[in-house]
Specification:
The protein has 149 residues and is of the alpha+beta class. The chain is built from one helix and seven strands.
Length: 149
Amino acid sequence: MGLIIIQGRSPIVIGGSSRRGVDGVSVASVGINEDKHLIITLTNGVTHDAGQLPSSAEVEALARQLQAITERVKALEDGAVNPDPDPEPEIPENALAGPGGGLLVSASGKYLVFAANAGTTPANALTHQNGELLTNSAGQILTSGEAAV
């Protein structure tokens, strides 16, 4: 049998003849379970968990980052020397780093920082899903600070 290339809906056979075989396995259904995982069920009954779907905030943050990158690339293509007139934000001194040393950033693109507990809850304070403030052993409140680019 020759090389078969699928283009659109019509196979193109190069160097041989084609014959239709038995239909293979295909996708029977796609759904999202209660844990927000994409579940794919095949016609042979096999089910695959394709992983957890991102939250809308994560998708929006990624969309904003992609838009900024697209605008920079377009400006460079148009001959701009400095396509981003806004300076990079300074990294806060109290920005948190993960185990690998990389700075921790929220889904909305803000550095995670600890703020001194001044007796009032800052508007950008982060909470556990049960509503409790996230704090460190010194009583500082975890907040989302300056935008990370």
